[in-house]
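During the second half of the funding period, the structural biology subgroup turned its attention to how the target accommodates small molecules. The most pressing case was flavin-adenine dinucleotide, which had performed well in the primary screen but for which no bound structure existed. We therefore specified the complex as follows and requested a full 3D prediction, including the ligand pose.
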Amino acid sequence: MSRKIAIIGGGWYGCHIASSLMSLGFSVRLFEQNERLLHEASGNNQFRLHLGFHYPRHATTRIQSRDGFSRFIERYGDLSRPIDQNIYAVPRWTSLLDFDTYKLIMTSTGIPYKTIDRCGVDLREVEGMILTEERVILIERARHYFAAHLRHALSLSVKIDAVEQTDNFVLVNGERFDYLIDATWGHFTPVPLKTFFEPTLLLYFEGAPNLPAVTFVDGPLYSIYPTEEAGVYTLSSVPHTPLGRYASSAEACAARDAIDSEVINAKLRLMVDQACENVAYFRDHYRFLGPQISIKTKPIGGSDDRSCYVGRQGRIFSVMSGKIDTIFFATERILNMMEADGDGAAPEIPSSLLANIRTKAAQVGLDVG
Ligand SMILES: Cc1cc2nc3c(=O)[nH]c(=O)nc-3n(C[C@H](O)[C@H](O)[C@H](O)COP(=O)(O)OP(=O)(O)OC[C@H]3O[C@@H](n4cnc5c(N)ncnc54)[C@H](O)[C@@H]3O)c2cc1C
């Protein structure tokens, strides 16, 4: 019998889980409060398809990224594209790790890279650099893909305020479902981890179309990454991108909505000054275009855990998103937990092992008494 599943949240997680469950024959309804899909964090981020290079301090995140990267390309081949020159650099004075340790961690995780001595642009105070194959996610294509693919399952512009669950079903928007998947990144029900909400500010810049992606690791550093639009880049900074730390979604949304030009201009100065520490050409080659404002749900702790978790309370699953490349792990965990529910208690089945052994022994002429 096909199970009926409700999903709240039309970000990367909700869309991918909906699409996967539909392919398996589940009946799915996806509720999204905005008019379009991928409108919140999923449409406002650095659009990097991670391979693990950003996370030298967290093994599970690296492993999920490494595996999720190839699965993403296999499943969503034309929703990302390669980048001509994608550099990770370890700065001499400000990194928490030295270059050899950084490389050792990546090598031991089985993530491929190439060490380079120079890169054609003027990077200062850098201890070492590698070239990587990380890609850029094509967000508009992704939005179109899911809008078309999920069209019969979508309830857009519907905000879910409350749900009810019994032992046998969950009531969402007046309709009965076998299960509910909360893919709101913790904005509806709590995720299975200690987290906080962090409003964020990335900055968009215009530059020549062939400038490299440059990411400085590891620690309170920054990165410049291309977008799907030729010549448009994001600048993200570990110390300056966060705009506060809030315990509830409502407080974080209110802080996000209060961001004004004064805050953005102050952050712009700080982020450009930081970029100029290592990217000598930054002021001459990039022109500020505008802000990108979003909210991140972050685990508490300094290890930079960005792996994916799924929690469960009765018939409600709550998904703690990792990065976009880790969507696959959420679907698998949810399916495992649903399958483990089965159709009731397993019947008593007596073992036939001894009878089988005796039969085989007799067949080969053994007399074992
Ligand atoms: C600044 C920044 C940079 C990032 N850079 C990268 C990067 O380069 N690469 C990468 O892989 N990841 C990056 N991330 C992380 C990535 O954006 C998230 O992991 C991912 O988008 C989370 O997807 P999601 O579907 O869980 O959440 P979301 O995209 O936030 O989707 C949740 C959806 O739920 C909806 N919703 C919430 N409450 C309700 C309700 N009550 N009723 C109906 N709908 C509701 C929301 O409207 C939203 O559309 C970045 C994040 C930020 C903030």
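Two results from this model are relevant to the next phase. The radius of gyration is 24 Å. The mean pLDDT is 96.
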